[in-house]
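The protein record filed here.
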Amino acid sequence: MSVDDNTPILRSCIKLPLATDELLEVTAKAKDYAIMHGAAMRSKTSFSPDSLNFAPFVLVPSAFPRKEFEKAVALQPIINRLMHNVAHDEEFITTTLAETIKVDEFTANLFNIYRKVLADGYTQRISLGMLRSDLMLESGCPELSPLLHHLEDTTSSTAAPAAAAGGGDDDDVDVEQAEAKANTNKVGVARTISTSSAYCCWKQVEINTIASGFGHLGPASKTVQSVGLLRSDYLAHVYEGCAIKQVEINTIASSFGGIATHLVPLQNFVLKELGHAEKLKHMPKNDALAGLCDGMVKAWDIYGKKESVILFIIEDVSYNICDQRFHEFYIRETYPHIKVLRRTLTEVHRDGKLGQCKELLLGTTEVAVIYFRAGYEPDHYPTQGEWDARYLMETSLAIKCPSIQYHLAGTKKVQQALAQPSVLERFINDPDEIKAVGKIFTGLYSLDDNEVGNANYEMALRTPERFVLKPQREGGGNNVYGVDIPDALKRMSRVERSAWILMDLIHPPLTQGYMVRPGSDMPPQIVDMVSELGIFGVIIGDADSIVHNYQAGHMLRTKLSTANEGGVAAGLGALDSPYLIDSDDEDATN
């Protein structure tokens, strides 16, 4: 993610700033509402199994183009099917990861399990995919350039007056915000340039098939402030020109579906408290929790044994406990005949075994469905015992979410391969669907030791500010950004480079609002933020047929524009909801 002086700002859901007394009162209410309704997490800094903090959240929902939201929702079943087909293409996965597994031990261990499962034959041919496709707005799409000339012509005559009117461009802002350092002339120039890059499109950063982790953010931003009516003029055009681009697809531990479902009522409450009940109609209904849990239950039904259970694979310490428990409790309350167990990989190694028909048994309890909320990082496998537990589950009759082939299908290397010309035709037959999916991919580049990879390596050294360097890891905190890329690449051998991919930086528009975090100063300050939309999907089937395939809700994560990375738990991001806007909305054009 990258922002600069020319980055457009989407208008807030309501007029900001709020009066201090009103802000203090509604924020205090919102914090209590969050805790009382389960929008909460355990603290990483002062962990206790007996206490919770509210999860960081944005006070009022962030603006989001309705047309692009609806496009993302419509595309999700196609993305589901794409990943399902990739996961069942042995040749593609094997060829694509051939170089990576030579230097990446974690991916090699996963691939060894995959290879052994293939050699023995699948005990369970059905897979449950619970995916989350993450998308981010791109504010400078070359495919939209024919529209830009008209915009420049209609706005250039007003650029100078707007620049002259800007009186607050040198004001210092909070350290969590970008610093606005533009002088009057710079504002004029920046405004003119900004109108030619104000169109937004969604970009895909990566596809994850394990542990729906958080996306990345880019370099610090500098926001041109006080551009007045001129900025409002072209923001309407920003909305009209948006097109989604995908950040990633998660296929394991699709997190925050539970809390995201409960965040909509929280922000609804805040808007009503502030006297803006009329805004609620612009917030889309979110049934992510029900959609995901119903997917697990559909898989349980397919397994077909009434006494069997659904097994959640968890970490030794679960910080995101409310999100996990929401899934468990929804199943127990809605389907009381289905029992849910929670076990670590270590516990499965200790207690698990295969029955006569290769059913997975924990003691005497048969497992129908395995839902991985852990297993996506090397630290989750501290000994060979945890790897043995993973292999045991993969060879069992239980339906896995994800199966080992789905896990591998979500590696960065596979995502990079999918973004290459003509590759989508291998997995999608419909030309219109191929075109639609292809448009949401961002630039992904191989760093293999061959002619193409070496050329990409040189490109990264020449213009590192254009890229993000990404390894085969999930969970966040692993990427290398911008000017740090050359040193990182130079420390790698030619072979080691093949475990990484290069990706174009995203240039999202900014939003501004109040980010509320445990322990932060009161009242909260207005900060510059960028948002990442997650669309959940469920798909169930085998290599020959698909039984269920549907979109299953959404979530919005909003982060400080000044952060490269940092998830909700790290305090640099917050849970949010989309406030849908149209190009002719009063909120969009005034």
In short: The longest helix spans residues 66-87. The first strand starts at residue 40 and ends at 41. The chain has 20 helices and 22 strands.
